[in-house]
Amino acid sequence: MAVEITWWGHATVTVRDSGVQVLTDPLFARRLAHLRRRRGAVPPQSAAVADVVLVSHLHADHLHPASLRRLAPGTTVVVPRGAIAAVPGLRRLRERLRLVEVGAGDSLPVRAGQGGEVTVRAVPAAHDGRRLPYGPQRTPALGYVVEGAAHTYFAGDTGLFDGMADAVGPVDVALLPVGGWGPFLGHGHLDAGRAARALADLAPSAAVPVHYGTYWPIGMDAVRPHEFHTPGEEFVRLAAQLAPGVTVHRLEHGESVTVTIGDGTGDGEGAGSGDGTRDPARHSGEAGKAGDIGGTGRESHG
Predict the structure, then answer these.
(1) What pLDDT score does 277 carry?
(2) pLDDT band at 186 (very low <50, low <70, confident <90, very high)
(3) Cα–Cα distance between 255 and 206 in angstroms, integer?
(4) Which residues, other chains included, contact 292 with Cβ-Cβ below 8 Å and sequence gap of 6+?
(5) Terminal-residue alpha carbon distance, the chain
(6) HSE, side-chain direction, 13 A CA sphere, residue 102
(7) 162-171: long-range contacts (C-beta < 8 A, 24 or more apart)?
(8) Which residues are CB-contacts of 59 (< 8 A; sequence separation ≥ 6)?
(9) Which residues pair with 80 in a beta bridge?
(10) Residue 301: how many other CB atoms lie within 10 Å
(11) What is the reported pTM?
(12) Are 258 and 3 in contact (CB under 8 A)?
């Protein structure tokens, strides 16, 4: 049994498990407000094809209505409870997409067109989930665990918090943020060191670092550039010290790894290793393509 992980950049990841395609926090933009994409091309058409989309919280680099509009009509999009009321752009998508609000502890089954099925379970996150400047609503940020052949934890944005491992539960693969989009990380984030500590507590078989080395403020390329370039490699190094039993796959943008459940290793091309090396997988090289988004969405019921 295996799960395939493709990192498209920032917090945008495709998880393929049991025939189901799960897409996280889609962000298909070259520029977002004061941020520009400095590394990796905008994800290709294939990246927006999913059976379900998981949105972790309401910040604009995670819930991006323009990117959600690239999904096929009818696609199920799971958002934190209160998101529809808090985000005007999301309300305008209700006729096009199937929006499902959840809170920590909620689960819903997701079925693919070919009959595969996974369960998505929402878990808590330690992060400010507000959508500024739209009103005073406080919508808690979430992480998600995709339960199929593997249990894959997508943390979204989070800091360390007491009881994290108990709240997330047993996992085989952890997709952990290790950086950010600016020179300084605010409260409620993981840097490479804190992510390695979280990894030691979670104790999965394998991990993929995300949320680094993609977007950066315009005009600030020379300000603390190591915070952009090095978090992935630093996470590999620290994870080897704090969680030596976990295989870390450091992917480049658009690359995939297939993790075989049971040994935590990559299977064939695209496998990463504890030293941070990796080989191109089948999605590498697609990132420069353009075109309209195709595919069909699948309904799920919680």
Answers:
(1) 35
(2) confident
(3) 16
(4) 45
(5) 26
(6) 29
(7) 164/198, 164/201, 164/202, 165/201, 165/202, 165/203, 167/104, 167/123, 167/124, 168/123, 168/143, 168/202, 169/121, 169/123, 169/145, 171/145, 171/202, 171/204
(8) 129, 131, 157
(9) 102
(10) 10
(11) 0.86
(12) yes
Kindly write down the DSSP assignment for every residue of 219-257, as one continuous string. Answer: T-TTSSTHHHHSHHHHHHHHHHHH-TTSEE--PPTTEEE
> In this structure, what token pair is assigned to residue 10?
């920032």
- Tokens read off for 153: 């934890």
Beta bridge partner(s), residue 14: 6, 23
Burial (Cβ within 10 Å: 0-12, 13-18, ≥19) of residue 183: middle
For residue 101, what are its two tokens? 């609000």
Torsions phi, psi for 217 (to 5 deg): -60, 140
Tracing tokens 């199920």 back to the chain, one arrives at 76
Rounded CA gap, 279 and 266, in Å?
10
Q: Tell me: the pLDDT tens digits for 66-109?
A: 999 999 999 999 999 999 988 889 999 999 999 999 999 999 99
Kindly state the DSSP code that residue 105 receives in the 8-state scheme: T
- On the 0-12 / 13-18 / 19+ scale of CB atoms within 10 A, 232 is buried
User: Which run of H or E residues covers position 37?
Assistant: strand 35-37
